[in-house]
Write a structure and sequence with these properties.
By secondary structure, the chain is an alpha/beta fold. It has a single domain, classed as Alpha-Beta Barrel (TIM Barrel). The protein is built from nine helices and eight strands. The chain has an eight-stranded parallel sheet with strand order 7-6-5-4-3-2-1-8. Strand 1, helix 2 and strand 2 form a beta-alpha-beta unit. Helix 4 packs across helix 5. It is globular. Bound molecules: pyridoxal-5'-phosphate. The site of pyridoxal-5'-phosphate (PLP) has 14 residues, from strand 8 and helix 9.
Length: 233
């Protein structure tokens, strides 16, 4: 199937998942697609944006930088992979939203680089809800310690939360992870009514994530097919 057909199938599945929700949610009644173009050549960015998907997700700063030089940078670019402190300057220059803010140290570094270029950098805090050792993301304790510190960083604007569920063959098994993500979002929204993004769900589990309240899903494989790890830039 081609990209346009894949996108139509995804939109249909999103609509079905929205219809399965338990009623009005604090995340609104829509779910936006972030097209994850990592390990695909720059042209797929142009192609998916031409089909009406403005949001692009990339995992690595270097790869995204290369692509931003190869195609006109339109729409909104999201960093969804772990960010190292030594790449923060480039990330702040390039990305509209950093979804993977996962430590106080990193937030401080983002604030510093954003200030230098007169930007207020939108971020999500990435939560490690399932407590997976190997995954990045804040555990509950660090998250709760970080929140009251955010006011120290005026060049960073918190837009919401990002959650990655553990990989599974059966998305039903990670439903509680997404439910916990939505609960965390609601709790945070009570304190900060301005937050508006709950980014949860990938190709294998986005329907369940939307049912549980995600209003942004990060989709690669179901749009573009398998990633090409030989792709070099
Ligand atoms: C690669 C990646 C995705 C997209 O994964 P697919 O399974 O190809 O949809 C989404 N989110 C993050 C954080 C990723 O690293």
């Amino acid at each position: 199937m081609g990209l346009a057909e894949n996108l139509e199938a995804v939109k249909e599945k999103i609509a079905q998942a929205l219809a399965q929700r338990r009623g009005p949610l604090l995340t609104g009644d829509e779910a936006e697609i972030v097209a994850v173009t990592k390990n695909h050549p720059p042209e797929v960015i142009t192609a998916i944006q031409a089909l009406g998907v403005p949001r692009i997700g990339e995992n690595r700063v270097q790869e995204a930088k290369h692509k931003a030089e190869a195609v006109p940078k339109k729409g909104s670019w999201h960093l969804i992979g772990h960010l190292q402190t030594n790449k923060v300057k480039q990330a702040v220059a390039l990305f509209d939203l950093i979804e993977s803010a996962d430590s106080l140290h990193l937030v401080a570094a983002i604030d510093k680089e954003a200030e230098k270029i007169g930007k207020v950098q939108d971020i999500l805090l990435q939560l490690n809800i399932a407590g997976e050792e190997q995954k990045s993301g804040l555990d509950r304790e660090d998250y709760e310690a970080l929140l009251p510190q955010l006011s120290k960083f005026p060049n960073v604007r918190l837009r919401g939360l990002m959650v990655i569920a553990p990989f599974t063959e059966d998305a039903e098994t990670v439903r509680p992870v997404f439910a916990a993500g939505y609960a965390a979002f609601c709790k945070l929204k009570a304190l900060r009514p301005e937050i508006d993004i709950l980014s949860m769900g990938m190709s294998g589990d986005y329907a369940v994530a939307i049912e549980e309240g995600a209003n942004e899903v990060r989709l690669g494989t179901c749009l573009f097919g398998a990633r090409d790890y030989s792709y070099k830039f």
